[in-house]
Amino acid sequence: MPARLNALHAVVATVAGWFAVVVVATATAIGLVSRLLAPDDAPYFLLTAVVADHPVVSLLFWVLCLLAYALGFRALCRGLERWRHGVDSTPPRGPRTQRLERLTTWIFARWWHGAVALAVAWSPWILLSWPGQPNPDFARTIGEFLLQRSDFVGGVIAPFEAYPTSHYLLPDSERIWSNHHNFFLMLYYGGISKLSILLFDSLMPGIFLISTLSLLLTLVAFGRAFSILGRLVPSWKVRAVVVGIVAGSPLIGLWGMSHSKNHLFAALLVWWLALMAQFVHAPAPVGRRWWVETALVSTGLAVSVLFGWILLVAQALVMLGLRRGRFVPLVVMAVPALLVHGTVTTAGALGLLIPSDPIETKGVQLQQLSLILREHPDALSADDREALGRIFDLEAMAAAYDEDVSDPVKSSGPFSRKTASYRYKTVQPEDWEAFTGIWLRAGAEHPDTFVDALVAKSYRYLDPLDEGTHFYPPWSGDYERVVGEHPVAPVEINSLTRPALRDAAYACFKVEGCRPLLSHSLRTVAVVLLCAAAIVVRRRFAWLWAMPFALQVGIVAMSPLAAGGRYALGFTYGLAVVIALMAIDDRQPERSPVENSQR
Description:
Elements: H1 2-36, H2 47-53, H3 55-82, H4 95-109, H5 111-121, H6 123-129, H7 136-146, H8 159-162, H9 183-200, H10 204-229, H11 236-247, H12 250-255, H13 262-281, H14 288-304, H15 308-318, H16 328-349, H17 363-375, H18 382-389, H19 394-399, H20 407-410, H21 435-445, H22 447-458, E1 481-483, E2 486-489, H23 497-509, H24 520-536, H25 542-558, H26 569-582, H27 593-598
Helix pairs in contact: 1-3, 1-24, 2-3, 3-24, 4-5, 4-11, 5-10, 7-9, 9-10, 10-13, 11-26, 13-14, 13-26, 14-15, 14-16, 15-16, 15-25, 17-22, 21-22, 24-25, 24-26
Keywords: Membrane, Transmembrane, Transmembrane helix
InterPro entries: DUF6020
Pfam families: DUF6020
């Protein structure tokens, strides 16, 4: 039986790994079809139509991409096989390599060494862009905390009108707190903003502080990850590559100053992955410091993004298969996650905050339905049109289709571009009961358009040549916003250099040699293929590292944006750490007598 299970495991691992290769190759081929074959005057990209017009060339693109990825993936698998029992580097010989080795050793020796080194490496971007500039989501988030429902007069936009939140979800009280952009994060941003107004009669000091704390978190997270991995990765060359990838990624430093939420998740993910590596690879059992540190970082992950608690619970369940301390992750990961999620759920049930709107999880379905209605106005039966018409204005829904973002269909996003698509003021919970059936019947009737919308929504995250949507922090030079009586944007500090650097970054992306420095999708593909190769060669902890990123691939497909830069930050931040994880000795550490006695 063990032999059969071992053989089955090998088959599953091989199929899973190569399936990832096929998916990435297909996404890259779709990108080539879109850029090279789709008509320039088309209002949006329809894959099936373009392939039907150019079947031979489209097939050739796919075959060439598949061949290129297959050859590269086989080489990657061979390399990870050689790395299975750790990577040792020969001692440096020349003076330059000796200095590099000493510098790398110093960076990995203490957490603050790594933090200082990255601060120096990113100093040009920090000095030219600090403190960043809040985006509309931040303004609405602090508006929830600072304002009451009755105060929205004189052109001030209520958060629940701009998101929107279905009005049946609104509590009867004046409180407008919600979980749309994470309840605890709203308390954090809003609390600092309120204190800033009380002390300085201005939001700007609070904005400066939030930006600085976010950047410090990024520096500390990487510094701590380096100090943990430095004890596990013996090769100074691998450590040098890891530092070089992070230090040479200006987007990490720039996003670290933003006022969104995804950069907080990405920084904590780096720290969390290193702590997991310490747990499974360290020769001795972890101590109380690890328990406390991991519980705190896990709590931060659960607070930072809405799916954070799901990731933590899933990872804790995966780690039940470990030999060592299989129930420990339940305590330091699942418990904090469930406490955070339970608190938010209870507060919503008690009417203390507005829960997340169910429409936010239906981005892909909405894009598919809106494109079907746009391409085939008579696609739905009379009954389905009547049922869906209670949720959406069907003509407005079809007109609102945008392949880059699903917000217009949801009638959310910037208030100035708000559409009449979603009937958020009158929709009721029971109106959604027929939605899934309508969606499935429309897809069965028009499978080509169904696929077109799905592809347009998702392929760009895995196309390494794609620019993405908003790959740079949203620091538009002409953005203006006021919350109550207090300006949020523009931020006067670096008001000239910040947009100039942003324009330079967009110009850089047009140059092929410069693009790899800024591409989120390139790093996403690299992480996916590294994890897939580790699974194929059956590294012991391959599934452990792959699961958090596999979950993120699924999450980004449901996000409002197609290839939104901030949704890919987990991959951009995590690439260097994944490389370090692959260079650790793959053998299970020996159990101590205490551990043996506990079995």
